[in-house]
Specification:
This protein is α/β, with parallel strands linked by helices and about 210 residues long. It contains eight helices and five strands, in the order βαβααβααβααβα. Strands 2-3-1-4-5 form a five-stranded parallel β-sheet, with helices on both faces. Helix 4 runs antiparallel to helix 5. It is globular and about 45 Å long. The model has no long low-confidence stretch (mean pLDDT about 90).
Length: about 210
């Protein structure tokens, strides 16, 4: 158990798993500084969902650069920061899935992954990774509820492939402390007790509290 507060907490999970909501709630509770994924300012995202093969490589490079700069800022900060999605997900989940589905060529993926590995050697992993595990029906429900136009045509197959890659990644995750939250069993938006359950688990991880 750690006896000092964390420096870097990250929340990982599939599209619609509830990462941003949890990041904001935990940031408010612990008075941590939230670093959110810049989806609303991403110049490639809407184009990508219209034509994945055309925009896969520039989208992934944009995310990789953005996430690398985030991690550098986090480690230079004097505050504890909670991050929405990690640089590892960009490589091991999304880029890998695009390669497997033939939206990213082997040449582009190899180039991308070599750049990722160079960046990985220069950064430190989160002090705690919180993985939000969610079923496909739960993801679809939450994607529909938040109503982003460019997400409404995401296929079930795409979400299934991402979930499979997430589970493979988490099963082999050795970068640091890991906390798995089953989103299907909790409603931390409407139920304060469910949020309290997550907070208790984080306290136990860092401070040895039950």
């Amino acid at each position: 158990m750690k006896d000092t507060p964390p420096k870097h907490v990250a929340v990982a999970g599939n599209i619609g798993a509830g990462k941003t909501t949890l990041v904001n709630k935990l940031a408010k509770h612990y008075k941590w500084e939230p670093h959110l994924e810049a989806v609303d300012h991403n110049p490639y995202l809407e184009d990508f969902y219209r034509d994945m093969s055309r925009w896969a490589f520039p989208l992934q490079i944009y995310f990789l650069n953005s996430r690398f700069n985030q991690v550098v800022e986090i480690r230079e900060s004097e505050h504890t920061i909670i991050q929405d999605r990690t640089i590892y997900e960009d490589a091991f989940i999304f880029a890998k899935n695009l390669k497997e589905s033939n939206h990213l060529t082997k040449r582009d993926f190899d180039n991308y992954f070599e750049l990722f590995m160079s960046m990985k050697r220069m950064i430190q992993p989160p002090d705690l990774l919180i993985y939000l595990r969610a079923s496909i029906p739960k993801l679809i429900e939450q994607i529909s509820r938040r109503g982003r136009d460019y997400e409404q045509n995401i296929s079930i197959r795409y979400l299934e492939d991402l979930n499979r890659n997430y589970e493979d990644w988490i099963k082999n995750y050795k970068e640091g402390n890991l906390l798995i939250i089953n989103v299907d069993e909790l409603d931390y938006v409407q139920n304060p007790e469910d949020l309290g359950h997550i907070i208790n688990r984080i306290d136990a991880e860092f401070f040895g509290l039950l």
